[in-house]
Amino acid sequence: MKFINRCVITLKPKPAFIDWVKSLDVELPETWDFEGGAYLFDEHESEESLVDGVSEEARAILENEFSVWTEDEDRWPKSRDFDTLKQLFILHIAVAGFDLGKEPLLRADVADLV
């Protein structure tokens, strides 16, 4: 096990997000247990500072989550701020991350992986 110097934020969809996905006429998962992303943030000196960091990245996080379900940005919810993030997802913030993987970490821009 290796420590990584990152805080980990995980998202679990709330009913409002699930309802939005259902409105898209896309294939739905059998269960929502495995849906929602995990985001790594630099270590922060305080919880307040970390929450501020998540708030600053709310738009990017939401746009990433929306793009999983549709690339049509006209169908994305218009509001993409921290309050919207909290309305659509349960946020779990872990101040420490640990890597249990055996393979080396891959680090690449998401655009390069598509």
Describe this structure in words.
By secondary structure, the protein is an alpha+beta fold. The protein has one domain. The protein is built from 5 helices and 5 strands; from the N terminus they run ββαβαααββα. A 3-stranded antiparallel beta sheet has the order 3-2-4. It has a two-stranded antiparallel sheet with strand order 1-5. It is globular, with a radius of gyration of 15 Å. 9% of the residues are buried.
Question: Secondary-structure map with pairings?
Answer:
Elements: E1 2-4, E2 6-13, H1 15-22, E3 38-42, H2 47-56, H3 58-69, H4 82-88, E4 89-94, E5 97-99, H5 110-113
Antiparallel strand pairs: 1-5, 2-3, 2-4
Mean pLDDT: 89
* Number of distinct helices: 5
Order of strands across the widest beta sheet? Answer: 3-2-4
DSSP summary, beta strand count: 5
Main sheet summary? 3 strands, antiparallel
Tell me, briefly, the overall form: globular
What tags apply to this protein structure?
two-stranded antiparallel ribbon, three-stranded antiparallel beta sheet, alpha+beta, 114 residues, 5 strands, globular
Summarize the structure.
36% of the residues lie in helices and 22% in strands.
